[in-house]
User: Fold this.
Amino acid sequence: MLEIRFHGRGGTGSVLASRAFTKAVFYAGKHAIAIPSFGAERRGALVLAFARIDDKKIYKRTQIYEPDIIVVLDDSLLELVDVAQGLKPKGMGVLNSSKKPDQIKLSKPTKVAVVDATKIAKEFLVEPVVNSAMLGALIKSTEIITFEDLEKGIMSVFGDRLGDRMAKMNVEAARIAFEETIFGKTKGGGNNTKIQTWLPTVNDLPVGTIIPKMKLESGQMIGPGAAVSRITGVWSHKKAIVDQEKCIQCLQCFFHCPEGTIHKEGDTVKVIKAYCKACGICVNVCPVNAITLEEINDYTEIVS
Ligand code: SF4
Ligand code: SF4
Assistant:
């Protein structure tokens, strides 16, 4: 399995880049999954996205702590964050920078592919949104998929979001970046740890973070166990239904359900409709296709 971690800022397209990339991987006939991770939901905030690629189906949905490749969309992050943290010894960095590889300092010497994606984006897209250019550099560095596959991925994902004309301009930005990417090795010894944006351990949390279960003035419950008061089932008009005849009780669905709403009751596997948001993960992981998403017409049926 190949694991890629994207470092960017809110509003600059790292999440869209990871989605376009994984779509391109699908076009290449492999399996892929894209996972975004947001901090503060605002433009400029530090953002992470993750992508996994494999020849077989991928079940792992965690963040990536030991990536094979890091993609850094904003070079100002190089001074704020240890982007190379956890990078595998033979791992690689794909960096947006106007500098040459040996002028860049990361926390450890790292093989890198470098492209001035900001310059390319300003020329081709007018806006300094570098996501498509960075995908061109990523493809050049890894040869996981062909440029033609990437083109299809960009046209599909960017086309849906921005329309065909903008998608084609982004393909061109990716193509130029593909041609202009250079390779080399960065210096090590950089102190790029002013901010740690991910992987907090319990020791990193300030005293007082662990709060008791309590009710805010708004009536909202917070603290341990408060999730039961959030009826995520009303987010969707579909619900997961288990066909008990087909179910072999392997409990794959139980382990993967992000809402923890699947449970075993005697000899049956059940879904509590009040919390099923119809994400479809259980449908995908069930080895015997025992789960389907079915329409719910009456919401009282969900919360009763
Ligand atoms: S994954 Fe499918 S077979 Fe396994 S327990 Fe869930 S419904 Fe049953
Ligand atoms: S559809 Fe999603 S939320 Fe609903 S039971 Fe399946 S995994 Fe859980």
Residues 164-180 form the longest helix (17 residues). Confidence is low (pLDDT under 50) at residues 195-200. The longest strand covers residues 46-54.
